Automatic annotation (TrEMBL):
InterPro entries referenced in this protein's UniProt entry, alphabetically: Diguanylate_Cyclase (IPR050469), GAF (IPR003018), GAF-like_dom_sf (IPR029016), GGDEF_dom (IPR000160), Nucleotide_cyclase (IPR029787), PAS (IPR000014), PAS-like_dom_sf (IPR035965), Rev_trsase/Diguanyl_cyclase (IPR043128)
Root EC class: transferase
CDD domains: GGDEF
PANTHER family, sorted: DIGUANYLATE CYCLASE DGCM-RELATED, REGULATORY COMPONENTS OF SENSORY TRANSDUCTION SYSTEM
Domain GGDEF as annotated: residue spans: 493-626
Annotated catalysed reactions: 2 GTP = 3',3'-c-di-GMP + 2 diphosphate
Originating species: Paludibacterium purpuratum
Gene Ontology CC annotations of this record: plasma membrane
Name the record gives this protein: diguanylate cyclase
EC assignment: 2.7.7.65
A molecular function (GO) term: diguanylate cyclase activity
Pfam family for this entry, one: GGDEF
Domain of life: Bacteria
Amino acid sequence: MHSAIDNLGPEHLQTDLWQSTYSLAGEAYVHAIVEWLARHLRAQRVMVARAIDLPVTRVRVVASTQRHAPDSFALAGTPCELVYRGQRLVQTSGLGQTFPQLCDTGSDSFHGYPFLDDQGQCYGHLAMFFADSTTLPDWFDTLLEPITARLGAELLHMEQQTRLEAAERQLALHNRVLRLTTQHTPLKQVLDTLLNGIEIDHPGTLCSIMALDRTGRFLRLLSAPSLPAAYLAAIDGVEIGPEIGSCGAAAYRRQRVIVNDTLQHPYWAASRELALRFELHSCWSQPILSGDRVLGVFAIYHHLPSVAGANDFAMIEHVSDLVCQVLLHHETMEALRLKSEHYQMLLRHGADGTVVLDREGRFLEISEGFLKQICAEGPEAIMATRIWDWSANLEPSDILKILQSHHDQPLIFQTAMRHVDGSLWDAEITATAVEIDGQSLIWASARDITERKKLEAALLREARLDSLTGVANRGNFLQALQKEVTRARRYPQPLSVLMLDLDHFKNVNDQYGHSTGDDVLRTLCRESAPLLRKEDLMGRLGGEEFAIMLPHTGVEEAAEAARRLLARILDMSVQVPEVHDRIHFSCSIGVASLAPEDADGERLLARADKALYQAKAAGRGCVKVL
């Protein structure tokens, strides 16, 4: 049976698609495409999904026409599993016979399209299910090709944004926990804050932290804000052993223990009834280690059998490292509470570099951690210096400010510190005014945050730049364009946009491979850069589609700039090693300038896109102005 679009034709559908989606981006665009396909193809169900793990076994549903669709599902036994092998899949009839678990869905045919990254790995897919036998016309693949490319780009951007937001939340939680720790907040409150934050950021998880007692044989509960009280009472004081649950085994073996299904795993044989009673069907446990010493265990439970992925392992490692710091700090502060001179134990065992200073900035005590941070061999030479000799921006007057202004709470700030050789490292300083034996002193700890700063900078770059070409990514470009539109409205000045699309780029990929296609995209961006001004901005919107923002530029100047750029592009070439030859390529360019009817930057971009379509229709390799 043929599809519902046979009588509509590609031109009508393309026009309708453009009118339905030209102003949309991100999740709104993905949902609009799903609804548009379902409506025009009369599909039973259309969905877009994103891989959760590698190798791909589960996917997360991003958009679906099915009401009450699950957030995620396992690929095994579905036609979608075959799509993740990187090929388009079409089955025009008998779907329930091939995939028995779909018998009750009423679907008879399936069309699936993969989204492939630069290495050819499938990271998501578009799936269309039909209640009857359905064959799509040959021209539909051509119509759908730019749609799937845009869908894939939007998914990557959404995933990138999600990861950045998750990293920001993780960093905020990390800093909050450290701040509570340095403010001498009770240990349980600190750990409850951490676990509550994890459970909010990872719905469906129930977390616990247990500490190894002084005998090294039993685990005692420290924090578990969401687990049932009766279950906690049953496991508090559990003995560690090679096969005693997830936590007991992790502490005994000093390695991570991942139990995906507690009702099937041998480690849970003695606790199976307990797990069943409280519906705890998976438990991932990570030992909290300080060197070779086991401090305790961090565990994550789920009410359903759950498989851990790479992101879960990274989160577990990060949390266990943070808990290690908190527990070590708590141990040290507990020692200080027991003896008036125990501040020296903090210097010996604290996780960070720690010093005690007098009012003149002189060192009274220096921890081994601080000596390692500044790369000093011993304390003798350091004791003759002042603290501001080791900070790039700490003045003598700052010492008195700490003593006078922060009696009730520590002062936390970031600064650049010096190594012995004069090189700099980034530090987060926690300084507290204390009184010891009637003398006003300063207790200060320095945490090396150099790697954290690099990570923050890398996250910022990842959130703004396209990883393949180094130009602005779609989200960054649209944000910059909207700011420039606002500026152009406030201080009346011209603003233009160029839309570029490489001609016949699919043929390059098909004939020479994706590696050569990537070289073409990189060459285009690299060799176009000298033609742009400092204030201009080039961005990759997806696939082979680019845009260039030209502030302070009218339509005639923009058209001339586009012609210069096209002439330069026509001179570009890329070496193809396999054939010992260079290939040339061309592009079509659409030009539009800000008009009174442009409500925002995306509207201006849409008009430039319309001009691009005109350039394509005019035979490609040319410039058209709207």
